Amino acid sequence: MSPVLDGFAVVVEPTNLLYCLVGVVIGMLVGVLPGLGPAATIAILLPITLGIEPVTAIIMLAGIFYGAQYGGTITSVLLRLPGEASSVVTVFDGHALARQGKAGTALGIAAIGSFVGGTLAIIALSVVAPLVAEFALDFGPPEYTMLALLGILLVATVSGGGMLKALIAAAVGLLLATVGRDGFTSAERFTFDSLSLADGLDFVPIAMGLFGLGEILYTLETRHRAAHSPTTVANVWPSRSDLRQSSGAIGRGGVIGFVLGILPGGGAVLASLAAYAVEKRRSRTPERFGHGAVEGIAAPETANNAAATSSFIPLLSLGLPANATMAVIFGALLIQGVTPGPQLVTENPELFWGVVNSMYIGNILLLIMSIPLVGLFVRILRVRPTILAPITVLITLIGAYTVNNSVFDIGLVVFFGVLGYLMKKLGFDPGPLVLAFVLGSLLESSLRRSLLLFEGDPGGFLTRPISGTLFVLFLAVALLPAARTVWRTRTADPRRSEESV
Amino acid sequence: MSTETPSTADEPTDDASDDTRPPAAGTVTQLVTAAVVVVLGGAALAGAWNLGLGSPSKPGPGTWPALVSTALIILGVLLAVAARRLDDAERFTRTSLLVIVAVGTMVAYVAVISVIGFEIPTALLALFWLRVLGRESWRTSVAVSLGSTCAFYALFVGALKVTIPHLF
Predict the structure, then answer these.
(1) pLDDT digits 0-9 by tens, B59-77
(2) How does DSSP assign A436-458, residue by residue?
(3) Where are the domains of chain A?
């Protein structure tokens, strides 16, 4: 238990507490403002983390991530504008409650649900992550090859936009990761004799460009509607009957969120949707949903916070990011000289437990601050996007320079910003690209080591129990959609032809 | 999820956000995208070929890029086949020109920053975005651009001691 307690000692250091607070506030702010998501914000703020200690930096970035889950709720309830994709379902019942004059109840339930979901997920994470890490210590190159492939495939399967386009994005990410000197033969690959490219592409400008700048360019085209003056928020504490009504939803939401958060590609968005659907299906009075059912807020809000927390498990125990935001945090760790993986718990216990335990404090901070700050957040929403856009662009451009003190990097950000914009326009999700880029070098070196190990026989993956199982899983996930389409066309075809006649 | 959406259509602002979205792009856009993907994959495959493909037992520097670019070509062809069914792309409209202009300002920013320092380009870029792209008033534009330039100077040069080229 002592490393766990040492972790608390790390958290209560004043600097760490301060950065935890800063992270949570920035996260809530970002959640409130539609447009930039947590991945984009963390990417834009990456340069700032260079100057601070690794533990402190990750504590702040983690705070941004789960703070954003809560911030999105505020605008969903008050303005019917989900600030985050993970609070889209909260709009249905949250705004209905607000229109009945019960905005306070909605926000209170959401805050309590978020706190409970987050806290339960941290406790589960503290137990599960070290076990997974210990199990994964025996993993060799073949296991990592299959895990990375499976992770990329799963993220592509559930990403926004079609699976085909997500896989294309992932393949481009893998190719981008090969730019630079080859680690095995030190041959220069795809550098076009440019010195700036010899060391490979840096993660930061790619993430800042695709997520940050791409998003800004994309919103430049769409006119924003003005935020409406919000309903006044009073009586934040939910009544006892509301609490009783939502306690089951909070419990189930927490479990659903935790499980879906661990799965690659799962994460907060999927978890909130699933939790809402489950509550509606279980309810004896499903017609209340959408007209101000407290369970309709409690379940998705608990689930998205639990998922945000549990998605740290694969990153901290296996070194594999489960979604785009985790990919950015993975990049942040690499910049700090920390390679996430199974050895993190044993070799860097103060980092591991410091970050995990900071989440308790972060959740308490969220619970305390969310309600009093509602008014402030609503006022910030009135700042026009036309004013925020140039400021964000300049922070991104100057920030990109600070990482390597290179103007070339600013150029890269602009390039990837344009790419990100085009991808969004053409229906590609940039998430899989960034994730694949992050995993690219691990995947390539694991594959090459595996092939050396198997003396060139790809069938070797099947001879090891874990990599074999993962390979079968990979095939199942890859072939399932195809099989489903074949099945559907086969069963639907006769009917369709009859109808058309 | 559309079936889950409750009927709150009595609110006037309901679908305003959807109205501002450009219409979906046609099959041609999807085909061009697919062609770009295939060409990109082909170029990468050619590059991998030159690096040396190696063999499964002796993977060379080009082995992995060749595998990935082959996958990319196949995916591009599949995209071309599926192009007719897809409606996930947006059409480029006249407002897309705004984006080209915006990118132009950033390219200019990168070009001049190492010559004349970051202060003047920063103020000008902010002013242009506010006044021309954002159609803010002159007063707001000048105030915000000067204010943010001073804030960036204080943050990056003053507090963070970044070695970004600067005049003062």
Answers:
(1) 888 899 999 999 999 999 9
(2) HHHHHHHHHHHHHHHHHHTTT-G
(3) 2-463
